[in-house]
Write a structure and sequence with these properties.
alpha+beta; Aldehyde Oxidoreductase, domain 4; Aldehyde Oxidoreductase, domain 3; 3 domains; binds ligand MTE; binds dioxothiomolybdenum(VI) ion
Amino acid sequence: MSYCQVNKSLTRVDAYAKVTGQAKFGADLTFPDMLYGKVLRSKYPHARIKGINPEKALEYPGVEAVLTAKDIPNNLFGVIIHNQQVLAERETYYIGDGIAVVAARTREAAEQARELIEVEYEELPGIYRLEEARDEPVKPVHPEMADNQVAHHTLRKGDVKLGFAEAEIILEREYSTQLIEHAYLEPEAVIAVPAQHSTLLTIYGSVQNPYATRRAVAGVLQVPLAQIKVIQDHLGGSFGGKDENVSAMAARAALLALKTGKAVKMVNDRVESMLESYKRHPYQMKYKVGASKEGKILAMEIKAEADSGAYACQTPFVTWRSVVQATGPYEIPHVKTDTYGFYTNNVYTGAMRGYGSPQVIFAQESLLDELARELKIDPVELRLQNIYHNNSITASGQRLDNHQVSLKEVLERALTASEYKAKYREYSQRQPGEKKRGIGLAISYRGCSLGAEAIDAAAANIAILNDGSITLSCGLAENGQGLKTIFSQIAAEILGVDPERINYLPVDTSAVPDSGATVASRSTMVGGNAVKNAAEKLKKTFADFVAREYETTGAELVFRDEQIYNGPGKAVTSFSEAAAAAFYQGVLLNATGWYLSPDISWDEETGSGNPYFTYVYGCQIAEVEVDIGTGEISVLRITAAHDVGRAINPAGVRGQIYGGVMMGLGYGLMEEVETEDGYISNTNFDDYLIPTIKDLPEIIPIIVENPDPNGPFGAKSIGEPTLELAGAAIANAVCQATGKRIRSLPLNLERVLIGSSLRKGGRSK
Ligand code: MTE
Ligand code: MOS
């Protein structure tokens, strides 16, 4: 099948606006009489609020309002569990909790006045370590709860007792991963404008999930959803990070806007963002694996515990993805997995690219290498013996029979491109000098889209205007991943036009049906199918009109190259001409597309089911050089092979691979939010280190295509799979280079020099 627009590396539709500075981000927007809002945050990670006196702040010149929890109709919100406070009422549960908000005529006045708000605190002891949160005697972080458990998910297959009894070798290992920050370039920004567009409030800004933010604001204000409009256009990166925290910000700005009758803008600086925004869950994991001498894995038992911090946020779903995927892509007859999340008084944790997979992949892929070493089997051979194929039964009991299970192909493509075998042999020899090289790999499977988390549907609107130009909008949001471009390509492909014709409109919650969140790497499949559905409906109406109007007969009309053909040869009419004719004859060329993803299932009781309707497969191979004198690790090269079903925009897929690999490298080597009894010590990029261009290895992206029957043009996911593997691959490469197995991320100098020891308890620090 040859395509005109999809499967091609077309230029991003937002590229020009972005590189010329025309694109307006949240912080760029201004409105008449606009006020600036600032938040006063807690002084302590855990404290009782005994009194708040805003008087001095209210007297400060330029201040128009100071609000606290008592001014809020409904102070609690959340995407899954409604236990997050817009502003702390009786207690603060973590260091980023807001206590009061100020609106003033200038940002400076808002900042100054914030300092004048008097809060009487009673500092309380907090829970900062997982084991304190979990073990008896339990002191609940939230006084209304009996314990600290946010979530407990189970997965059961076969009988692990039986499996371990049959095993000839059993390994038990503990692994841990750290707390990290999304580090999006653009800190959070929101503007709430009252009485605009016939609504109570219009919210603009860096909102990752406009419908969730609408729900939160309407819920907090106790007003109908129809009264709140959220508009999102350009966003400076999110990586899962601009959901609950931005909803809280939007709710605060909305309250101030209603109070003052003026537009209120709130923009976090980096320190505020680091203190308040949720992070990636740190995990503590116990893995037990049993295998035969030949390397057949017979049983795996896993326990993974996540620190949820002060709020539930998305911990229930993050730990659910972990429970499904924790064994990795290996067909194992007996599996028992338990994942947990616990409240603590640490900064709360939520969605971050990978969403519960990078942690378990680090553990599972380290474990596979450890097992290979014990068995004296090559790590690749061990994996090949156990990986999923077509018709494999996954750990949750799902038969993989509705798509191509391409793990072997993905692995082999990566092995060849990285020259893995030759390098593995070479680096296994004794290496003289301080600098030792190693090569290591990691593989994964990943459920596409939300899975059994929630209803998984999306909508798109397309209109053909009377001059033949087109508007397109969808309920899913551009975060930087390239969604506007691929949706334009899909629409243009179906309608046979140049994507230049299409004006991609900002997300407007009042204009497009609720499409859920732009998460779980679901947009290409779910949103792409909605766009395709809208374009197909429109094309049908249009074709019927053209057939009538131009009295075509026989062959189906073909829309291609801006023309409409009735069989080969000369065009019947041009797209533009026909669009004008349709308009003047009263034909509606406007369609809403909808896509509801195929059925899936999950049984919490038995811990089994078909949790996702399809999967993607990936392999990353890292080659490193370790200076055993200094402990410094240089990543030389990462080969990343990913089956994306079909690449709608191959350059975009490669972009996701480059970015995902670099984020994975940061996770593997250097990133860590350092906390001490609930206080965060690295609150800016001078001491929260993320990779820079100097850390950039050679990255070899490999796109594998096995079109999926459920994807638009066969496309699946790429956003998160690219991030989840590099940390694990680097850890395996470092072990080959140095002989030291490091079981905690990040692989920083200290750990490389001293070697591995998983500290018992507490954060891996
Ligand atoms: N790429 C860019 N440039 N910016 C982002 O914020 N978010 C990631 C990933 N890639 C992100 C990104 C995350 S967390 C997800 S879930 C997916 O993109 C979402 O986009 P998709 O559904 O289109 O894959
Ligand atoms: Mo991505 S963590 O699912 O927004």
